[in-house]
Each structure stands twice: as structure tokens, then as C-alpha cells.
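The protein record passed on below.

***
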Amino acid sequence: MGLLGVRRGASLWRIALICLSIWGADAQTAAGTKPTYIWQTGPWGRCMGSDCGPGGSQSRAVWCAHAEGWTTLHTNCDQSERPENQQSCFRVCDWHKDLYDWQLGAWNQCVPVSMRSAGVQRPIVCTRGEEGIQTREVGCVLKADGEPAEDAICEYFEPKPRLEQACLIPCPRDCVVSEFSPWTQCSKSCGIGLQNRIRFVLAPPLFGGSACPNLTEFQTCQPGFCEGEESLYSLRVGPWGLCSVPVSRQARQAEKTPREEGSPSKESEKSSKEGDKPSREGDKPSKGGDKQSREGVKVSSEGEKPSREGDKQRKEGEKRSKDGDKLSKDGQKPPRPNRKLGRANRKPDRPSRQADRPKRQKKVKNKEKKEKMREKVRERLRERGKVKDPETRELIKKKRNKNRQNRPGGKFWDLTVGYQTREVSCVHKSGNVEALSLCSQDSLPVTFQACVMTKDCDVTEWSEWSACSKECYDPNGPIGERTRSRKVSQFPIDGGADCPELQEKEPCTPQGEGVPPCIVYSWKSTEWTECRIDVLLSQQDRRRGNQTGLCGGGIQTREAYCVQSTTDTPPNLGAIRSKEALRPMDSNLCLGIPPNTTQLCHISCPVECEVSAWSAWGPCTFENCQDQAAKKGFKLRKRRISNEPTGGTGNCPHLVEAIPCEEPSCYDWLVLRLEDCTPDNERECGPGTQIPQVQCVNSDGEFVERQLCRDAILPMPTLCEVPCPKDCALSPWTSWTLCSNTCSGKNTEGKQTRARSILAYNAGEGGLQCPNISALQEVRTCNDHPCTVYHWQTGPWGQCIEDASIPATNVSAARTRGDDASCSVGMQTRKVICVRVNVGQVPPKKCPESLRPDTVRPCLLPCKRDCIVTPYSDWSVCPATCRTGGNTKKKQFRKRIVIQSPANGGQDCPEVLNQERECESPSVCQGFRWKIHKWRRCQLVPWSVRQDSVGALETCGPGLQIRAVSCRKQDGGQADVEACLQFSSSMPPLTQLCQLPCQETCQLSLWSKFSSCSVDCVGVRTRKRTLVGKSKKRDQCKNSQVFPLSETQYCPCNKYNAQPVGNWSDCVLPEGGRLEGSLGMKVQGDIKECGQGYRFQAMVCYDQDNRIVETSRCNSHGYIEEACIIPCPSDCKLSEWSNWSRCSKSCGSGVKVRSKWLREKPYNGGRPCPKLDHVNQAQVYEVVPCLSDCGQYIWVSEPWSVWKVSNVDLKENCGEGVQTRKVRCMLNTIDGPSEQVEDYLCDPEEMPHGARNSRLPCPEDCVLSDWGVWSPCPLPCGGNSSRERTASPLRQPGEGKQCPPSEETELCKLNSNCFHYSYNITDWSTCQLSERAVCGNGIKTRMLDCVRSDGKSVDLKFCKELGLDRKWQMNASCVVECPVNCQLSDWSPWSECTRSCGLAGKLWRRRTVTQVPQGDGRPCPPQMEQWKPCLVKPCYSWRYGAWSDCKSEGARCGDGLRFRNVSCFVSDGSGLQDSSLVEDELCGDLEPSVDGDSNIVLQESCTVPCPGECYLTDWTRWSLCQLSCVGRDDLGFGSVQVRSRAVVAQDPENLLQCPEQELEARPCTEGQCLEYKWRTGSWRASSRQVWCQRSDGLNVTGGCPMTTMPMSDRSCDPPCSKPRSLCTEAGVCGCEEGYTEVMTSDGVLDQCTVIPVLEIPTAGDNRADVKTIRGFNPTLPEASSPGRGGRTWFLQPFGPDGKLKTWVYGVAAGAFVLLVFIISMTYLACKKPKKPQRRQMNNRLKPLTLAYDGDADM
């Protein structure tokens, strides 16, 4: 067998090798036959075609390519395999977008990435979750039928949606449960029972987490042995069955025959079946009512109607089968769901029934007698009805209908009183149902009770739509609405289906031809008030106290009001001049945005007149050259207007001044220059003459024709001399200096001087002698006219008055110009006088008459403007008085608005603009209330149902009674029930349980109210009740112990104390803070914001039990009021302007600055300071350009002095010498240099030399004049350019002598004698306003400088002469932001209290900003809302008490009821204080509701478990709403909460019959992130406790990951047996505290030794106190415990010989060095440093240095 196996294996290997070789050969063949040329294709092109849809075609490129990739001929490829290059396609058009769309499938399950990717490993520990991918199907479909289409169609319009997306697979969350509760008591008092302990679920298992563990644990218990036999059976009652209508009498009578024939079992079975089956016929209610009470038939609004179908009743009964029935508001018990009565308890108690048979027969006879009497009465009534006429019958019918409506429920309720039964059974402890006879009990529980048949709500059909609430057509306005309603025909009874909505609304707009257009309301506004200007902080100047002349930017206000606008409105009605303005309406009627009530404005600033400087005095001329007969002459000087003023030239000062003079002339000759001196007789030297060149000029200096000067004296030639070689050579005369005085008087005389100097002396006696020094200077008089200056002075223009001389045509012409401000032309006059300067008024003849200004001019008279007010608005609506409040009478108001203020003498505005009056009659609030009617008779279960029960012959016991409810208005009038359902409280109950007293029952009245107490804490108060009916005669009812008729209690001892509560409110100013402007115009935003106000604190009142009560009990009005102060805002205060600084440049353009300094900071919301300049501490500064004339200060040099020859040979008076002269800096004016100034004001570089060394020519030497000015260097400088200057010969040389060169040349060098010039632009100045302007439009300027190439500023003429381009703009407009104060609205009325009761209620009022502040305006106050406390009111509320124990009536177990009460509680609403129980009367005004639920439930069904039964507990409360979080981060899977039911067992034998525990979870909102962490206890031996704890401190089971669970057991192997050893957390042996480990070489603990201690002896004690230094644990006691005797180390300073050891000396030396070091460092640290030398303070410190504290935000 083994050999055969080997042979078979060898043959298999051979077959495999053969197959492999064949496969390799085929592969080689295939590789060898691979084609060399293959077809390749390109992408398909665009679908083309003429029609849209599937008829298109598309093509692609097809080519043949070599296997290596290059393209070749088509013939090289196999033609049979050639791919198609065309195919049909779907041509997409734009309209296909409406036919096709992407169809998106649902996302599939999230698949982990590790399952899709082979290389990705799944994480071992899950933290946040596992990353996954989910896919979906996406396809293009036809919208109509969803048929698939090509994706290319949809891709044409929209890209294909994504097919995959990332997802997160959350980590599994295990179930989390709480800790176990304590063990319950034993389920049995004797014998073997069970104890239970349970826990509840805190978090459900999620995302595949482990399921919840068992919530219950059991353990057996045995309190003791049972003495008797254990009770095995218990009587159990079932739930109440469906409410059923009793069987009708006809049906019972029809069943009597078979019952009498001896088939009681069938009859009873049949009756039991029909007991729950409603009759289809129903009984008519009898007039008597006794039958009603006995038979329990239906009580409906129409007595003739039969009961409803059985199917519907069965359906209604099913609706009533609920677990818990709810009580209505007064706590009555509604019927309960039932089951049919079991046969076991339907067997009648035969002996008792036979004993009661005679009584029953007697009653039947009495009943028959009564029935016969009733039948007779009916016959009489029928006879009477036949006699009456139809009208009477109609009245009777209406009365009957009305009576039916007043029956229980009226026409809206179909109340049917029925009965319901329940089953009673006997149960064994094992759960099996046994015979009733096994349950020993005296009497069986009641198995029937009265009930009301459940009815669903039934409504009528919808009514027709009402008319539209809007009766006019307005396409732009709000739309109206229309309603329709339906009424309730049957209200829900006893838990039936609720009523649907009874009213529907829909928007509507009336349309049609007859619909009138709606009244349109629009906004109108008054005229703007005058522009009001607030002064800038930088312009607050003490000298500007009167601000009436301020100009520039400001703010103006107006009032907006709503008016009714119609098509009949005249077009000019909106204009101010319209006399009939529109009536103001309610502002809410205008829907648009109201116009702005504030705007910025501008007052044009007056332009002041600016004049130029005076010109020089002109020549003496006639007053009028055309009339020279007067022979009166004047010298005039003039100035011109450089800036035109606003009010015309009349506001300028005088422009001409005159001086009387003699010999006037209108024309004169002007000497232009003198020609060169020409010697007489054509000689070369000697005396000669100079001929003047003249021109005829007029009095203004203008050139005129020469013939006009024919009467003037022509200047004569002047004598001169050309010096000969031996003559004295003199320089030419200098120019005449300026006149020393402008006029001549007694003490003053004008003079002019000129001078010349000696250039060379004469040669002995041969030449002309040089003159003496006095002849070198000449003086002449000038300005010899007297100093009496006259000018015309004008007064201001008078008021514009009417001018009767102007014709009416001119007036109409003035009006047609469209100038609204003028209505006619008037006349203005002014006074003109002649004034002598420094003297006063003189006669007019002293002034030139031709220059006299005008005294009369025309003017435009302004129009009168009357005040225009609107008509009074409508009276405001009287407020409703139904709201809570006092008896103060309400008022209504109306107003009118000033839309134009009077001006120019127009009619004034009326004084009264607002009117008020008391409301005529208080308005009544429409309200509705429920009216309840009397309770009907108590109805018992029908006789047919209870006839077999004990005591059925007596008509008594529990029953049900019903009543009617109707709706009334507040005034008592009838109203529809729907109104009460909508506007009133919940409907009162219609049924209640009742008790018909039996013969043996004692009946008592209700308790009366307690009598009143006259004084608290003194006496008693009582209440009483009485016996009713036959109970008064029964002896057992007179037992006061059982039935007390009075109760007494002490009068309450009420003591109250008041105390403040809460914070103080805001400081509230008294009302009326807003100012009213004149003429009724509102001054917007001017609100009193500071001053004395009041703040409030609430008072709360408590009684002696610390319960909050009304504040009136403490004789308090509810508040503490305290005066308070709101500090007024203080604005930033600055100093006055400093003086202007000197111009920053002495030549050219510069700047000058002035500044203000901070005097006081703003506080309390005052106007802020401008931005602080940190450089020079200036708060505000102004920079203006200034121009320093480069010729303003000039050097003036006197003539050269006489030569001082320095050689020895003085006979010739020639040779080297020195000349000197004085050089002074003078102020240059229009009249020339006027006064000497400091030298530093002139340019030192241009200062002329005060001395010169030169050679004085000797006699017969050539004498040249002074050198002329250098010629200008050609520009640009550089290269070989040069400049020249020349001198002219004044004296020719003698024989043999020559003149020196008269020309001099030098090279031009840049910045030495040759300069380039360029313009330099300065920075912009600050915005310059007019003198009285505070803000608004201004001008900023800059200036041009002419700068030399060496950087020096020079006169502009240098740049102008070069013709440089001036492309800059020197002036630009600018704006200074106007200061606009914050404008606020009025305070709103106080709001309603934020809380209806309690301590924390607040009243709020708010205001808004109507104008934000701008510039330096006062900022808005931070407080835009204010609050004050509300009156403290107690918070009353209804609250449930605890549920009572579940009780099953008459049985040991089964279905029962549990009850609770609702009581009135009071609290302060803060939630910090527990509520206190108070009398229910205090909650009488509250709507009955608990925690917002008006459906008060005072009883509910429950189950009493039978002994031995295993059951489920009640549902736990819903757990906390918990999110799925990791590290406090929400993972986004929502939040969940859970509740559970645990199992409770009572008998060990029934554990297998226990139900499963239950768990419910639901999503929730506002979840919390809760974390779970392991907690550990301390080690005890080798174990410790380990538990899981939630982040809120709750210990739980589950939730913590098991992978991170700490170790709870740490047993060591081998065990730790050494003394003082223990097993550590690491699982190895260690030592106890205070001991250290000694290990063996292989790392095993050898022994535990005590930690060494250091003992140091002290002086004075030979034994030395031991001070232990514990390094391991300093808290252990010093005394070593027995067994710790290890080695001890001692520091002994003395040796065995008694001498100190060497180390002691070393320690002492080290201590000494350390002590010296510490003392040295202490000295250096405490040494006072030298005071640094103070720098000398700059004398020019700014005053703000002491005031500024570094606030940069001012």
C-alpha cells in the first residue's frame, strides 16, 4: 500500500511537469506571434447633428501604430480589426435640462477603510471611531418616468455628483448602569422569601456595544418559620371593562319567558353577553326620572333619539381602554377601562337573594301602581294638547327645546350614563387561577360601577369665507385676511378625541371694479430749525463769550409726522407756505421709513474786508483835473481791497486819504535818467553838462502824452565836470535817500540827503582842488506839506425801508427773479462825514468832494412769514380699563405741530399745541367665562346590572352625576361655547362621582368656613357641620366621636417682617427731563442727563414661618427710595491760544504755529479731548503758512569814508590806503528802509564789507569808477563758462600813463558764484476757517520756495526770472468735521415686569441713538437702558403630593388605584428657597395647572402584585441627555436618554416565570458630554478596589474601557516573606515606609534595613539630645519601634583624647568666610547711591507737563 502511494505521487509530478512545459511553449508561441502593428483610437468628439435628441453622430480618430508607439500606414494593420470611427449619439440641447436630471441613491453602509484596502490595519483600541467609506449609485434618468439615460446628457448641464464620501464608524458604546440599590426587605414575613436589589440604565448600548447586564439581583431570605399554614391563595381584581349601555327593558322582557321556563344558566349567560353589548333600539327617557336613575338609560339633548350603533360604542370603548385615567380639574374620578365580568363571580348569592324576595315583590307592586298613575297623567296631557291651537303648541315646543338645552351638556353634549364591570378571581401563589371558593373572604369586591360613554368630538361643516378684512385696494400695502369657522356639534366626552381647529384664516386682497383704493399715508416733516453750531474744543475761547456770530458747520432738526395723502391733495400742499396743512395721524399708519429728523447744515461765514498797504503819497494834484478852476489841490495815497467782504464794499475801511497842498498840477515831467557828462567846447575834460531824459506822467504816475505837460516846467540840464589828469576825481552822487518824514509841521521837517566821495586827489597846484568834506554831502527838503490828513468815513447801512419813489414795475421785476426771500425793493441810507486823522469830524469841504461815498442805495425787503401749524390730530384712543390697575381716570390727547416758524414780523404761533381730556366712559374688555349649572341627581348602576348583588333592593351606593356647562360674557350675556374654548380657561368637569346614602348611612353637610379671628394670636376659631335628613334621628349618627359636628383651632399667630432684597436700581431722573423749544418745536436730544434722581430697592415681606407674603402685610408700599446723583458730564478744557510763533524761515515760505494746552480732562462722559501730540505735549495746534520776504530786512551801507593812506610819503596823498563805511540792517518798507533792526535779521552772507584796502590813485593816474555788478553766469553752471564785470574811467591818465584794465573775468563755479534755482513746495497747512467759523468748509494752503542749489532759500524773483514751471496748486478746499453731540430718543415707557412674581422681577425702559456723535461732539452715554425692581409678589403654584400606596379595592392584589393631592405652595421665585405649603384659597386665582400642564391627574391605575408574583418595576425617570463625545468633543451622532424597568421577584419558585427587563431610549436635545474614568482605592495587602466613575461623580458599571482597567490584585511570586516587606504595585517585593531595600545579586529582596539617622550632640548635655533628620518620611515618630535597631551614625567633634578634630577647624574657617561675605553684600545693598547731577530744566517747558498723565486717548 505504501509503495502504491509513492508511485502515484511520482506520476502526478510527471503530469504536472508536462503541463508546465506545454504552457511555457504556448506562452513562447504567443509572444512570438504578438502583432507588430495595432490600431489605436482617440476620444470621441462632440455629438453633432441638426436635431436634438438621439439622432446625432460623433466621430473619433483611428490610426495604425507600431507596437513601439510610432504611427504608420493603415495598410500595415489588419483591416478586419479596424475600430469604428463613427457612432450614433444623443445630441443634448438646452431644453433637455428640464427633462433629465441626476438621480441620487441612498448612501450605503459605512465600510471600514481597512476592509477595502489590504495594506491598512484596523486599530486595536478605538478612540474616536474608525474611518470608513460609503458609496451610492448615481445615474442620469428621465424625470418623467425615471428611465435611465446616458450620463453624458446630465453631464452636459451639471458635473456628475460624487459616488463616494468619507464617513466615521463610531466606537462601540457599552451599556452603562448605576450601582445597586440596597437590598429590599424579605418578600415574606415567614418562610423562605426573596430579597431584591436593582439598578437602572444610565446609557444604552450604542454602535454594537455590549448589552445591558441584569438589572436585578436576588438572594433568598428567611425571617423565621411560619407557625400556621401558609396562605396559598389571594383574591385578585382585574381592570374595569368597557363602559356599556344597559340592556333595554324590551330586550329583558323578551328574555323573561325562556328564563321562567327553567333555563337560568342560558339567561344569565345571555345577559352577561348582552351586558357589554349595547342595544340598537334604546329606550326613550321617561318624564319621571326614577326610571332614569334605575335603568341608567341615555341622557341626551334630544330624548327621542336612540342610542348609537353598537359598533360605534364598541369603538368608543376601545378608545377608553388606557392604562391610566386622568382626572379633570376638580379631581373627580372618570370611568376606567374594563374587562367582562368572569363567570366565577357572577353566581348570585342564593340565600341572601331568597331572603330579600318578599321585599322585592312589594316594591314591584308599588312600581306598578305608580306606573298606572303616570299613564293617567299622560292621557290628560294628550287631551289638553289636542285642544290647544298651533301657536300655543309652537310656544310649548320652543320651551321644551330651551329646557333640553339647559339639560346636562345642552345641545353640545350627548352624555350617556352606562356601567362597567370587572373580573374577580382567586389566584394561587404560582400564578394559576383557581375557584373563588378557595379564597376565604367575607365579602366579594364590587364588580360594577357607573360610567359615562366615551364620545369623540364632532364638528359641523366649514362656514362660508368671511369678507376680507381689507376693504380697499392697495397693491403695495399690507394684505388682509378672511376667516371661516365651524361649530362643535358634539364635544369630546370622557377622553374622546379632541376637537380639531375651529377657525381657519387665509390672506386676501379685495379686487373688482367697485373696490375703492386704500387711503395712503405718508410721512411729512416740518421745516428745519435754524442751524445750531457747537463750538469746537479747540475754539473755546474766553473772549468768545457771545456765540451768536458763529458760522460754519452745525446741526439742524425737524419733526416727522404721518399724514393722510389722497389724490385730491394740491401739489403745493407739501410746501411750507401752504396755509392748510395736513392733519397728523398715528405714526403706525405710515409704513415707510420716516425721514431723517437731524441733518448737518452750514452757515456761510462772513468774509472780512481785507485791504492792502498804503501806497506812497502822490504829487499835488487837482481834485478834478477836468475842472481846475477851484485851484484846490490834494496829495493822495491809496490802498485797494485785496479780499471782497460778504456784505459788499460798504463794510470796508476808507481807501483814500488826502492832504491839502498848494500849486496842484495834474501832469508833470518825470526825470528818467541823466545822460553822461559832456565837457564843454568838445574838450576831453573839464566842466560840462548832463542832459536829463524826461517823460510826461499824470498824478497816478502813469506815462501820458508829452503835450499834456506843456504847462509844466521842463527840467533843465545839470552842471557836471569830467576831471582832468591832475584834477581831483570824485565819485558820482548817490541817490537821494528816502524822506525822513511823511509830512512837515512845526516840529518835523522832511529831508533827503545824497553824498559822494573822493576817488583821487589833485596833483599839487596844477589841478582842481578837492572840495572840503561838507561839500561831499547835499541835503534837501521833502514832503513839505502839512501833516493834516483827511478822509471820508462811512457809517453802517441802515434798515431797509420801503421807498415810495420806486415805481411798481420795479417791484414786480424783483419778484419775477424767483428770489423767495424778497418781496419788494426798498432803500438804505448811511452817514458820510469828513474826518481829520487824529482829530475827528471836520467840515466836508476839507475832503475831496469827488471821492465822497454814496449815502443811499436800493435794497430788497424780505417777505413776512406767518406761523403755520397743522390742524389738531384725532384724539388718542382711550386705554382699556380692564387691565389691572388703580381707579385713576384715563386721559386722551391730541396735538398739532408747528411746520413753519414766524419771521420778519409774521403772525406768531398759538400758545397751545397740545390738548388733553378725560375719557368719557371706561371701555369694557370683552371677556368670556364658563357658567356651571347644578349637578343632576346621582345615577346608580342600572337595576338590571346590580340586581344580583348584595343590598341591591336598596337604592343607594356610589354613582355618577352630571351637569350642564354654558358660556357667558363678562356682563352675563350668552355666548357661543367656542368663545369660551378660545378665550377662557379650561372647561369645568361635566361628571363627578357621587354617593346615594343608604338607610344606614349617616349624612352630614359640608364643613362651614372657620369663624374669623378678631385679633391674631388670641382666641380660637371654629367651623361646623350638621346632620342632614333622616340622619338627625338616627342614634348612631349622633355619636360626636365618630361624626364630630364642630372643629376648633387656635387663631393663627401671624407676625410679619420686611427686609430689602436685590440690588439698588439704576439712578432714575424724574420725568420731564426733555426740554421743549420755543413755539412748540422739539429740540431733539436735549435731555437732562444729570442731577438728582432716585434709586429703588425692592422690599419683601415674610411671615413668622419665613414664607413670603404680600408686601401690604408689612405696611410697606414695596420699595425703599433713596436720592442719588448722576454726575454731570465735564468736557475737556483747554487753555487759550498761545501767541503765534515766529515764521520758521527768515527768507521764503515757512510755517508758524500756535497751540493750546490741556487744563482739565473730560470725565463723566464729557466731550473728549483732541488727539494728543506726544512730541511737545500740545493738545491742539494750528499751523499756518507764512512768507518771510527775503527783502524784508536789507543791509544798508553808508558812503565810503575818506581814504586813509598808509604809506609814509603823504605829499602825494596817494598810494595804499583804507576806506571804511557803516553797514546797518534796516527794515525795508514800501517807502524804502525805514528803521534799523538787529543785525541777525539780515542775511549775514550778504552783508557788505565795512572796510576795503585799495590803492588811492596818484595825480595823473587813471581813475576808474567802482566795479559794476558781475554779469550772470550762463546756466547750467559748469564747463568753461565765466562772468565779467566792468568799471568806467572817471579821470583820464596823464602822459605816459595808462589806465588799468576796466574788465575783470572769473570762472563760474557751482555754488560759489553760479547757482541753480528750483521751486520747493511746502506742506499743506491745517484747515483754515473764517474767524468766526467753528467747522465746515475751509481752505488749506501751501507755498512755493525758491531754493538755491546750495540749499538756501532766496527771493522768488530768481525762479521767476528763469521762467520755471509752476504746476502746483497753492490752495485746496478742506473740511473741519463739525462737532455733533449725541442725540437720543425719549425714554420708552416702563416695560411690563419680567417676572409675574418673585424677587427677581425688573421693569425696563430703553432709548436709542437718533444721531451718532461726530468730531468733538459729546459722546453717547453708555447707559441706554434703565431698570428698577418690580413690586415683590409671592409665587403661588399648584404642586402634587406624593402618590399613595397602590390599593386594590376589596381584594388583596390586582388592578387598583393610587391617589395624590394637589396643594398650594408659595415661593419667592428664586429657586434657592424651598416652597412652603399654604392655604388653597391663595391659589384660587390661578389656572389649575402643575408645571404648566393644565391636565391635573390625581389618580392613576396601578397594579398590586399578588404574593409570589414576579413583576416589573415602574419606569425609571429619563436619564441625563448624553452626547457621544471623545475628550469633550461632540462626534456629531446626536444625543440620547434612556429609562428602564427592572424585575422584582417574591418567591424563589416563580423565578422562571419572571418577565424580561425592559429598556427604552429616545433622542433628546441639549445633551452633555460625560466621560468615564477608572478610579482606584488604596492597597490593602495585595488588593484594592477599582471602579468606574462618571465625570459628574456617579459610580457606574460599564463605560470605562476594559483595556485600560487598573490592576486590582498584585500578588508577588514568590511571596514577600521578609520582615517589613510588602508586595508593590509593580509585582515585586519592596519595603515599608522608613525602610530601604537590600537586594541580592540576582535582584531578589534580601532584607529591609532602617533608614539611617543623624544624631548631633548639643552643648550643656553630655548625653546630647538627639535630633533626627528624616529624609524618607518626616511625619513618623522619632522613637524607633522595636526591631528597627540598625546602625546609627554620630558626628563627634572631639576625638578620643578630648581634643577637637581637624575637620571642626575647617568648618569654623568656612563659616567665618561666609559670614564676612554676607556682611559685605549687605553693606553694598543698603548703601545710598550718589545723587546724579540734575540737568538744568529747560526754561521753556510746556505747561502741560504737570497736567498730562500719559493718557493717549484724550
Remarks:
- The chain has a mean pLDDT of 76.
- The longest helix spans residues 2-32.
